[in-house]
Write a structure and sequence with these properties.
The protein is about 55% helix and about 15% strand. With about 425 residues, it is an alpha+beta fold. β2 and β3 form a beta hairpin. α10 packs antiparallel against α12. The longest helix is centred in the N-terminal third of the chain and has 36 residues.
């Protein structure tokens, strides 16, 4: 805020910040790269977690949860009539048969079971008569038969060779020599046991332990022995994954933000130390500490405004490529806002001390200040004779300002960690 009796120096501050960014392009690029990588990592974690949750939910919503076997048709009807099932289906395993060098897996699968288990699309219709069947498309390709509905095939399905009409073709991927054959319910012996699978009504959002307890109680009420019941380990395992609170994602994002803050602090600290003389000249010309701080603030805002959108765009691209088709605008916009605020807050904290150093420097102190004037060792060495080799000169230069050396080493190390995280 500029008071009426103050000069409006915002244009000068903007020009000084712009010239500082252009004069130290390497530092500016390094800051943008650091913030972009941090935002990209945090955004990718959030976006991928949301997409994976959607994919998992999409996969488990239609799956069966439990079932029982060894049932008669009357028992299946009695269980279904309770109205406790959201979806259900039954099947009868008939057995296997040989056809040339292939194996046929023969079964009756109810139309409801096809939808519940997601077996795939059928071209044509489901078999209804005793001499009708549905076969995988890979069967016709393997044996060189026409891939057409309505044709007649001769097969031995236990009882001698007979002619069957193909009423449907099952559209599934199969590269083996084991082929699925579905027959009608009327072609199955009446004494064959049924297997029932179902999805419990009202189970969406229910805790897995409570859902399983309700199912066990239901089986007990219906008189189904425990040894004839089974539960979908795949469903319950994925539900546990979906119902997770994502704490590991938040912890990882926080660690990335901490690393980003340390790296940015190191970069700005080194930059401010190198510009002490410049800040001193500005002080001689009448620049106030608040104006110097506002110059650093403008640099910070400009670099952050470039880096955060760039990081979010990269994160969105990674999520769309890694898990296509599961982009949620609502969840991802919220995640992007949180990541942006967290990153900006991290940058504010990281640049607070370097900005204070720039505002506190006096004109005389800045003129005397060099890059090695703080925390340097004794000016006169006690060692009378030293060999001036390249490694020794490098060590002398490195040890003149131990804080700067530590900051530089830590900055490079943490930046390497960020790059390794991105590559992983």
């Amino acid at each position: 805020m500029t008071w009426p009796f103050e000069n409006d120096t915002s244009a000068v501050e903007k020009k000084l910040a712009s010239r500082s960014i252009k004069a130290d392009k390497r530092r500016s690029v390094f800051v943008i790269l650091t913030i972009t990588l941090a935002v990209c990592l945090m955004g990718s974690l959030c976006f991928l977690y949301s997409a994976q949750q959607m994919k998992t939910l999409d996969g488990i919503l239609g799956q069966y949860q439990a079932g029982c076997d060894g049932l008669t048709r009357e028992e299946v009807a009695r269980l279904v009539d309770t109205g406790r099932f959201e979806k259900w289906g039954c099947t009868i395993e008939v057995g296997t048969a040989r056809h040339k060098d292939g194996v046929l897996q023969i079964s009756y699968v109810s139309p409801e079971m096809i939808d519940l288990m997601g077996y795939g699309r059928i071209t044509g219709t489901y078999p209804q008569g005793e001499n009708e069947l549905c076969v995988e498309r890979a069967f016709f390709r393997y044996f060189g038969l026409p891939e057409e509905v309505g044709q007649t095939v001769v097969l031995d399905l236990d009882g001698g060779e007979r002619s069957y009409t193909v009423t449907g073709i099952l559209e599934t991927e199969n590269i083996s020599r084991i082929f699925t054959v579905w027959i009608s319910e009327t072609a199955v012996e009446s004494e064959s046991p049924y297997e029932l699978r179902f999805r419990f009504a009202g189970s969406q959002g229910m805790e897995p332990a409570q859902l399983r307890a309700d199912m066990e109680q239901f089986f007990a009420e219906m008189g189904i022995p425990e040894d004839r019941t089974f539960y979908s380990s795949s469903y319950f395992g994925m539900v546990d994954l979906y119902l997770g609170n994502g704490m590991e994602v938040y912890v990882a994002a926080l660690l990335i933000a901490v690393v980003c803050a340390i790296v940015i602090y190191n970069i700005f600290y080194i930059s401010v130390m190198g510009k002490m003389r410049e800040y001193g000249r500005l002080k001689v010309l009448g620049t106030t500490p608040r104006q110097l701080k506002r110059v650093v603030k403008r640099e910070r805002r400009f670099l952050t405004a470039i880096a955060i959108p760039l990081g979010l765009i990269c994160a969105a691209g990674i999520a769309l490529i890694a898990v296509p088709g599961y982009w949620s605008w609502g969840d991802n916009i919220r995640s992007a806002v949180v990541v942006s605020l967290l990153t900006y807050g991290t940058v504010l904290i990281a640049t607070r001390k370097p900005m204070a150093m720039a505002g506190k420097v006096s004109a005389i102190e800045a003129i005397r200040t060099t890059a090695y004037s703080q925390q340097q060792g004794p000016s006169v060495s006690r060692q009378l004779h030293r060999r001036l080799t390249m490694p020794r000169l490098a060590w002398m230069n490195f040890s003149r300002n131990r804080k700067k050396a530590f900051v530089t080493t830590l900055s490079l190390g943490l930046t390497g960690i960020l790059l390794l995280c991105v590559s992983a």
